[in-house]
Amino acid sequence: MSHAPGTASTAAPSPNALPSYLDANNLGPWGIYLQQVDRVTPYLGSLARWVETLKRPKRALIVDVPIHLDDGTVAHFEGYRVQHNTSRGPGKGGVRFHQDVTLSEVMALSAWMSIKNAAVNVPYGGAKGGIRVDPRRLSRAELERVTRRYTSEIGIIIGPNKDIPAPDVNTDEQIMAWMMDTYSMNQGSTATGVVTGKPVDLGGSLGRREATGRGVFTVGVEAAKHIGLDVAQARVAVQGFGNVGGIAAKLFAETGARVVAVQDHGGTIYREAGLNVPELLKHVAEHRTVAGFAGAETLPNDQFWEVDCEILIPAALEGQINKTNAGRIKARMVIEGANGPTTPEADDILQERNVLVLPDVIANAGGVTVSYFEWVQDFSSFFWDEDEINARLVRIMRAAFAGIWQVAQDHKVSLRTATFIVACTRILHTRELRGLYP
Ligand SMILES: NC(=O)c1ccc[n+]([C@@H]2O[C@H](COP(=O)([O-])OP(=O)(O)OC[C@H]3O[C@@H](n4cnc5c(N)ncnc54)[C@H](O)[C@@H]3O)[C@@H](O)[C@H]2O)c1
């Protein structure tokens, strides 16, 4: 119904109205995020009056990405860039290339970036992007064309001071180099600060590639102290042996922990005495999978979840720990390297069983923390050495985790809810300070 200018609506829309562009009966990941916000609202005090801000993305751009395929035909792909919140600074978050990406998923991932960035207190809002494409079906030249056209299309809302993309699933340093180049060509000057996760020779940061795994390890060690777990004696199981899982496993093994089981897309391997992680990394670099590694036995994939261990690190995909396997997990602590690896039902089961979950929104925040360092270094064109970067990363992660642990104790809530309390309070406090324009 329309109203004459200046007259008030008699039927004001509900403040909780869901966006018309999502299916209210099948909200997808955005629905999970909304539940998490509802759980935290009672702890926000007077800032709760602003909470509706968090339930709507500030801006969602849907773009058509047409490219010439190598065979001369034209293909179209759907692309997104969502800026969930920019109260604390420019948007920041990765770009995912996957055939199943949806607007709901990108909205949720952008909101989790708002939470993550506020949790480690880096001066960013949250954003995320994606293209519905299976990059394995594209040639390198087609992949470059998709990346460049997408970057050009979202170029109207990204920029070093507006929104800074980064790698995510199926996007890497090369794709960041193409994004940086495309944006720079359109602007007429090189703008290294428009994306992070770039090659080191193109304004990337030392330590960025290892940063997420190092953050996983750092919060794991801190949490272990609180529950009286000796990391050097612990057994560790890792799902996903890529960037995040591989580095986290290496760092745990270096402290003396035994990495007893590893699962990736190719299979599951096990060795009670502990796998030789440096050798396994070499094997994966050569064979692209842990399967076939000498000096380990093979387990059926489903048995991975009931392996005897103290620390379980999901570092692959979303929804891996769910109501079918959460009851079988033997670990004392789950460290979420992946984004969204635990469903809300599984979260409740683990909490009832006294398994401590270190949630993604703090556990895998090491990546964005060093992305922040990369952005700062690009602005000043002054680059730091790796020891300095790692020392700053560890300091930020430890301080952030200590604050969240204290909030969890004070309110007797899970670490996930505690992280949301800390982050939402920071975001909404800045919202209140800034006020509403106009
Ligand atoms: N790379 C980062 O900086 C970063 C930062 C924050 C969060 N994350 C999240 O961490 C997760 C992993 O990212 P990554 O950068 O390590 O990716 P990656 O591509 O380097 O590694 C992914 C790993 O998952 C494994 N895998 C894929 N499908 C699987 C399956 N069905 N079962 C078991 N294992 C499977 C792959 O074999 C591979 O070992 C993602 O959820 C990502 O969003 C990554």
From TrEMBL:
Pfam families: ELFV_dehydrog, ELFV_dehydrog_N
Keyword entries, A-Z: NAD, Nucleotide-binding, Oxidoreductase
InterPro entries xref list: Aminoacid_DH-like_N_sf, Glu/Leu/Phe/Val/Trp_DH, Glu/Leu/Phe/Val/Trp_DH_C, Glu/Leu/Phe/Val/Trp_DH_dimer, Glu/Leu/Phe/Val_DH_AS, Glu_DH, NAD(P)-bd_dom_sf, NAD_bind_Glu_DH
Chain sites annotated for binding NAD(+): T212, N243
A biological process term (GO) from this entry: L-glutamate catabolic process
Site for Important for catalysis, residues: D168
Entry-linked SUPFAM superfamilies: Aminoacid dehydrogenase-like, N-terminal domain, NAD(P)-binding Rossmann-fold domains
Residues annotated as the enzyme's active site: K128
Domain named Glutamate/phenylalanine/leucine/valine/L-tryptophan dehydrogenase C-terminal: residues: 205-435
Binding site for substrate: K92, K116, S371
GO molecular function terms listed in the Swiss-Prot or TrEMBL record: glutamate dehydrogenase (NAD+) activity; nucleotide binding
Family: Belongs to the Glu/Leu/Phe/Val dehydrogenases family.
Name of the featured protein: Glutamate dehydrogenase
Organism: Variovorax terrae
